[in-house]
Amino acid sequence: MEQIYTYGNYLTNKFGCKVYKVGINISGFTCPNIDGTVAKGGCSFCENDSFSASSGKTKELKGFHLNLNSKENPFLQKQLEQLEIQFNSISQIQSTKYGAKKFLVYFQSFTNTYAPFETLKALYDRALSFENVIGLSVGTRSDSITDETLNYLAKLNEEKEIWIEFGIQSVYDETLDKINRGHSSDNVKKWILKSKAKGLHVCGHLIFGLPDETKEMMLETSSQAYKWGIDSVKYHPLYVVKRTALGNDFIKGRFIPITEDDYLDVLVESIKMKPKKVSVQRVTAGIDNDSLLAPDWCRDKNTQIKHINQALKPFGLKY
Ligand code: SF4
Question: Which end of the chain is more exposed for a tag (fewer CB within 10 A), N or C?
């Protein structure tokens, strides 16, 4: 049985030890698709509330939001403290519980290049100064990154391991419109190609089960993303949570989530098509609490992984 090349394999091979991503959630960051710059309400599946920073949050930062045109950031010091508090608590658990030796600081929630350059530079520099940090992974939208920021990340990449994670979701603009994504597929392609040209490492996020998409469309998205040269991939099923536009559509019978069988079918095909050197960071997603409306199979991650391995087995593959 051949083990799929995972991101964990990639990091262990490169750094010779266990490297863990430390997910960070900084207050004051938002998204142009939520604050009204591009659209309001966010992507139809996005529960915006779920992005409120929980660790190291201070009262002062409540209601404070940055954007690309923000002229000043009176809370930068607080944000730097928050970064340090979160990094220390999460990395300590990863060390003691899982034997992590080195860390990649993952700016995870919202759009982590959507702030003035000086703020971003200070946060990235501070993150890279922590002990045993070998690099960064910055999650963002392709319409929210400037050349200045990209160039700075490319400069950091000369000494450290710098990743950018772009939400690709689908290469079909009609689908992106249906989920209120607020940018085109061409825009994602452009910034992925630019990032690659500067030597940065790129992870692409794909969603299967988007409204009205066929299996062929989902596979075309995978195929295009691989052609654009992504180095790593996260595959997600589209699941529906409460307090979202998609949740309303689901309740009114206007959206039917992908079945587990259909998801497994498209996932296995996508993995088989994948160039070997593209590492896999995620093969599914879900949420095990009351906020999940559907599908129910997205509740239990262990069962999902078991079923994924059963679906991969006939092809001599395992995750
Ligand atoms: S881009 Fe991300 S943070 Fe912004 S609305 Fe969409 S899912 Fe939410």
Answer: N
Q: Which atom of ligand 1 is nearest to the CA of 109?
A: 3
pTM: predicted TM-score of the whole model, two decimal places? 0.96
205 ligand 1 Cβ < 6 A: no
The answer to whether residues 226 and 197 touch, using CB atoms and an 8 Å cutoff, is no
For the domain made up of 2-318, give the CATH fold.
pyruvate-formate lyase- activating enzyme (3.80.30)
Asked if residue 164 has its Cβ within 6 Å of ligand 1, the reply is: no
- For the chain, the straight-line distance linking the first and the last C-alpha, in angstroms and rounded, comes to 10
30 alpha carbon to ligand 1 midpoint, in Å?
9
Q: How far is the CA of 42 from the centre of ligand 1 (A)?
A: 6
Query: What span, in angstroms and rounded, lies between the C-alpha atoms of 292 and 279?
Result: 28
Instruction: Please identify, by atom number, the ligand 1 atom nearest to the C-alpha of residue 48.
Output: 8
**Centroid of ligand 1 to alpha carbon of 32 (angstroms):** 8
- 119 exposed, middle or buried (CB, 10 Å; 0-12, 13-18, 19+)? buried
